[in-house]
Amino acid sequence: MSSLNEIKSAIEKYLRDDEWHYTLDKENNVIRCGVNLSNRLQECKIIIDIREDKYMVYGLINLNCDEPNKNQMAKLLAMINYGLIFGNFEIDYSDGEVRYKTATNCKNCIPSKEVIEDSIMIPAYMFNKFGDAIIEVMFGIKDAQEAFDDIPDND
Question: Would you say 126 and 59 are in contact if contact means Cβ atoms under 8 Å apart?
Fold first, then answer.
């Protein structure tokens, strides 16, 4: 059985070896870092929440969806989520936060470098791919269907 400390050590080793800038909240076992994006969002904050036998990675952006556009945002995220293999987008209706979440089961194993890299980069990749559509719906420029239909390479 893998322990929280073994999982945390493996993740920290990956981040150090790959020269990431990060902070560790030792009390809550949470690592924070960020990834630059190549769209209008510009950055994705990464939060790694480490627990016994698993860890979750959350990708967050610096913008929240306002009340008038929350239903269209939820619709867009549902359309994007359909068919995704690793993780999903979520919206918090109370404050409009949009995030991408992945979870990694570490029961009886320590995650490899490749697993850790994927778990951290998938949220950033998803915000990179879908970020412009998210912004268009967030600011009421397009409705969910229009934004979804305009996503490049969205097969």
Answer: yes
From residue 49, alpha-carbon distances to 26, 53, 103 in Å are: 11, 12, 9
Token digits for 51? 């627990």
Asked if 63 contacts 135 with a C-beta cutoff of 8 angstroms, the reply is: yes
DSSP element (H, E) containing 46: strand 43-51
The pLDDT of residue 90 is above 80: yes
CB 137 within 8 A of CB 114: no
Work out the average pLDDT over 145-153. Answer: 93
How is 92-122 classified by DSSP, letter by letter?
-TTT-EEEEEEEEE-TTS---HHHHHHHHHH
Domains and CATH numbers, the chain: 4-149 (3.30.1460.70)
Residue pair 147/41 in contact by the 8 Å Cβ criterion: no
Per-residue pLDDT reduced to its tens digit, 29-53: 999 999 998 888 889 999 999 999 9
